[in-house]
Amino acid sequence: MSASLENRGQFGSKLGFILSAAGSAVGLGNIWKFPGKAYNNGGGSFLVIYILMVALIGTTVMLAEFTLGRKTQKNAVGALRELNAKYSWVGGLGILTGFIILCYYCQVGGWTIKYIIAYLTESTTVYADPTAYFLNMLGVNGFPLEGAIIYPLIFLGLTSFIISRGVAEGIEKLSKFLMPLLFILLLGLMIRACTLPGAGEGVAYMLHFDPSTINGNSFLVALGQAFFSLSLGMGVMITYASYLSKDDNLVTNTGVVCVLDTCVALFAGFMIIPAVFATGIDPGMGGGFAFATLAGVFMSIPGGTIFGLLFYALLFFAAITSSISILEGTVAFLVEEKGMERKKTVVYVSVVLFIIGIFYTLSQAYLPIKGVWWSLSGIEFPIFGDFMEYLTDRLLLPFGAFFTTVFVGWIWGTDNAIKEATSDGKFKFGLAPLWAFLVKFAAPVAILCIIVAGLLLGMS
Ligand code: PFF
């Protein structure tokens, strides 16, 4: 055994693991992405489909990842290699996906810091024109030094610092502190939003189930969102579970993490949509929604500046506990598989992903790539940033999740996985056969549908 494996960290407690895994799951996906998707796909109808997708497919894939990690006590590549060397590339694919996600995740994470500072020091400038303020940060008026470099660098620096401290001292300590805080903040903000005059219509929209708004695309969006939100398909949950002691019940952990993550997404939906309805602001739900649109919302409600400050703090907490999990996936791989030193690895990986990430922000407004390429070739090229999100959310994450289920279902075998999941090899309510069915058949088929649809529909 190599020195790095002997010195592997471990979560100090069951709660520490649950909060860290929930910290990974709860992130920009819940607060920055979910409300917009719910709004655009029929409100209450989307919530029902989303919950269904999490309950059937999300939990299935998460448990598969947990069993792989805990069984082998290795990073994503090492875990698959140990069980069947021919499939170690599945872990590698996940790590690549994580790396790409982290490139843009750190940029958006940086924007949350910029907005926290803006709300503390210059909220009137933000309010003068919230959209212009946001676009300015992205570089419509010149190189976006703050939006692309300074704040993302601070965000990444904090992420790297925590990671370099290791599992129990870094990740677990931070998650134990931040996750409860995040829940309290979110509940407070949701109550504030739902009690605004005129918010009732938004609440009603989020509770209204109208089957006519459901179509094939709603399922695809819901499943893709569920993977992103639950941190599945890139081996992060394999890596986290590898730091878990043998006596933890993985089925219970899966249930708790999925419920916590879904509650946060729902609370975020019930915070944002009612606030948007109450203020009558057009929810223009792009990536700038949480920044440009919501700043307009905060401006028009009593106590909005405090509300806004707390919101961006919440977004920052959620983002940092997720970004550390993604970076940990890559770092654990390089340390354990390539024998690199942990602290140096953190620095090297961070530098590379920071440089690539800069182009995410630059591509939003500063570099008119789309225009130039379009006029040269006659083909509409996607914006680099949008392309990164399409590649990861619609293709690579589902690919990773697909191969994970196929591997656990058909190669390693559900009997082995079930034995690993609980100390007595039994699931409550006799659910083991159902899980085996989901992992072998239902999940791979459903995931294959999103991959095919993603390829056929392209970025539309
Ligand atoms: N689950 C995180 C979110 O909802 O923002 C993002 C994420 C973290 C995706 C870790 C994938 C991952 F492995």
Description:
Its main location: membrane. This protein is 79% helix and 0% strand. By secondary structure, the protein is an all-alpha fold. The chain has one domain (3-457): Amino acid/polyamine transporter I, CATH 1.20.1740. Helix 4 runs antiparallel to helix 14 and helix 16 packs across helix 17. The longest helix has 38 residues, at 384-421. The protein is globular. It starts with a helix and ends with a helix. 4-fluoro-L-phenylalanine binds at residues 24-25, 27-30, 98, 101, 228-229, 231, 234, 236, 322, 325-326.
Counting helices, strands and paired strands, the structural category is mainly alpha
What can be said about the biggest beta sheet? none
How much of the sequence is in beta strands? under 5%
Oligomer: single chain
What is the overall number of helices? 20
